Amino acid sequence: MLETKNLTIRFGGHVAVDGVSCAFQPGTLTAIVGPNGAGKTTYFNLISGQLPASSGEVWLDGENLSDQPAPVRTRRGLGRAFQLTQLFAHLSVLENVRLAVQARHRKGLKLLSVWLSHRELIAEARTILERVRLASRADDLAASLPHGDQRKLEVAMLIALDPKVYLFDEPTAGMSVDEVPVVLDLIRALKAEKRHTLLLVEHKMDVVRELADRIIVLHQGRLVADGDPATVIASPIVQEAYLGVAA
């Protein structure tokens, strides 16, 4: 479903992502790991269109999206959750999700029809809030939520878009121990549906071991390992580059 071909970006003389070629299939979850500065988030930025590639291509369902901006890639089915939450801070929790549902249905904003005629969008948004356990905070401003609930709200907005590909960039970062299981359960449920391609950047190796069907490792912008979790984690290059153990 998703493929990158020799994807590369240079910042001056620094090559942050260096010729990464990789294909990702529906119904699988691939964890992307590596030390800080390895290029993981930059790789996500290249896939989703937040950064223009210096060279290389991004393909989705046989379509070359390399020259398309981020909004077009989102409409084609690339969904992205960021390390830092991206919310409409001064809108309610429900409105944030309702806007995402509305975007998927491609129904334009009209002063009266949004709330009066689009009740089905609101109902769908409430169902998603139930799923992420935020229904009780539907009327609260997004800015008023604690960090963990903001993370859950961002995942809710992503679910509302129903993308073909989910890009999760450290989805549990900054969350308390009690909050983490909610997000992980959502990712497990998406994986169980077998119709999405899921990519996950995550530093917590226990999460990676549990969720991932496959691990790829980036080091200094290059793809240095790719395979099943047990094999990749045990490989000498990962022990040295990621875990800090001499090979």
UniProtKB/TrEMBL annotation:
Keyword vocabulary terms for this entry:
ATP-binding, Cell membrane, Membrane, Nucleotide-binding, Transport
Concerning PROSITE patterns, the annotation shows: ABC_TRANSPORTER_2
Protein known as: Amino acid/amide ABC transporter ATP-binding protein 1 (HAAT family)
Q: Extract the InterPro entries matched here.
A: AAA+_ATPase, ABC_AA/LPS_Transport, ABC_transporter-like_ATP-bd, BCA_ABC_TP_C, P-loop_NTPase
Stretches assigned to the ABC transporter domain: 2-245
Q: Name one GO cellular component term.
A: plasma membrane
Any GO MF annotation of the entry: ATP binding
**Which one Pfam family would you cite for this protein?**
ABC_tran
The superkingdom listed in its UniProt entry is: Bacteria
Which PANTHER family does this UniProt record tie to the protein? ABC TRANSPORTER ATP-BINDING PROTEIN (PTHR45772:SF3), CONSERVED COMPONENT OF ABC TRANSPORTER FOR NATURAL AMINO ACIDS-RELATED (PTHR45772)
